[in-house]
């Protein structure tokens, strides 16, 4: 069995993420009355919707990063294609590289490769990629939280006036998923998409002109 099969099998064997548990610190108490139970159920629903929206945004950004790596390794507008020969075209090799190499890499691996290319590749050697790299690293952490961490609720305050605060884990750190965190995520996603799109347009002038 090859590594790819093992990877898929391991993903299938992992237990599903279960959100919504009320997590108590040692000695802490919670009183689930009608009000808190209603809030608990409403927040559970919101967390499910939030997980889907967040992962969708992260997937969009990762797909753009895939395209960026593809064009950096196979800049079709710069490579000469001999149409008279029966060899694979650059576009064929580019697609093969995308679907057989890039797609099997983790987001962390893609980020690491792009970070190296940002200082070594001639197409982007004169461009400042620091902001994009910082954003991509933040996106990676957000994605890991929502893709691999269960989100639990922490009772805040004393009974019977407790509130439930959603929290998750990212790289061993507890993350409070409050309004400020969500607004920052939305701004992060929007800015990262803009930065990635601008760089894509800069390195693929011919392709962009055709669209």
Briefly say what this structure is.
With about 210 residues, the protein is mainly alpha-helical. Helix content is about 60%, strand content about 10%.
Give your account of this protein's structure.
This protein has 211 residues and is mainly alpha-helical. It has one domain (34-78, 89-203). It is 60% helix and 8% strand. It has seven helices and three strands, in the order H-H-H-H-H-E-E-E-H-H. The chain has a three-stranded antiparallel sheet, covered by helices on one side. Strand 2 (163-170) and strand 3 form a beta hairpin. Helix 2 runs antiparallel to helix 3 (90-100) and helix 5 (130-148) crosses helix 6.
Please provide the count of β strands.
3
Helix content: 55-70%
> What distance lies between the first and last C-alpha atoms, to the nearest angstrom?
42 Å
Overall morphology? elongated
Judged by helices, strands and strand pairing, the structural class is mainly alpha
Query: Which regions have little confidence, pLDDT < 50, spanning 5+ residues?
Result: none
**Number of helical segments?**
7
How would you write the strand order of the largest sheet?
A: 1-2-3
Task: Estimate what percentage of residues fall within beta strands.
Answer: 5-15%
Please summarize the sheet with the most strands: 3 strands, antiparallel
Mean pLDDT: 83
What is the N-to-C order of secondary-structure elements (H for helix, E for strand)? HHHHHEEEHH
Radius of gyration: 22 Å
How many distinct domains?
A: 1
